[in-house]
Amino acid sequence: MNPELELETIAREVAECRACRLHEARKRAVPGEGPPNAAIMFIGEAPGFHENEQGRPFVGAAGRFLEELLAGIGMRRDQVFICNVIKCRPPGNRDPQADEMAACAPYLERQIAAVDPRVIVTLGRFSMARYFPNARISRIHGQARVVDGRLVVPMYHPAAALHQPALRSVVEADFAKLPDRVAKARSLEPPDSEAAPPSGAEQLSLF
Ligand code: URA
Fold this sequence. Notes:
The chain is 41% helix and 13% strand. It is of the alpha/beta class.
């Protein structure tokens, strides 16, 4: 599989997708963006107002904060892959529904297989739930676990830190650990891209 071509194919399919009701009100679908060989993938929740206008992930206030957090560890957004669990904006920014996440899941799975990142950072509870369904973000944020050969690090959503200023330093501290995590993750076995999606049972160890 050529990762660049596969990501382009996914983006085209997402742009025309009608697999759930969210296509009805969307202006632009938001597949995600970043280098096909990015070492880190950030998975957010769903496009908001600005993302729906521009067809790009994290371009509003939460995106600006994400860029600040990246700058704090010496990185730019064009060095990481950024996408969402849901590729179309839920009306009024309501929570994604289970059937919408199920309809969209194959796109995310294919993006993960194509980019094959060493580290996945989940932003917020919906992407965290993909890996740690019963976890509480307040308990596990910033901790890395090996899932299917990659490190998965759950973090608070940047928007949560914008709404609750006390979380800001927590998110910054979790980000500060990322460069070291990436270095450690490079020593892990490459994941089997044909493997089934991860389940809780595949969580092997805590970094
Ligand atoms: N919040 C998200 O979770 N994703 C975006 O793309 C923008 C805001």
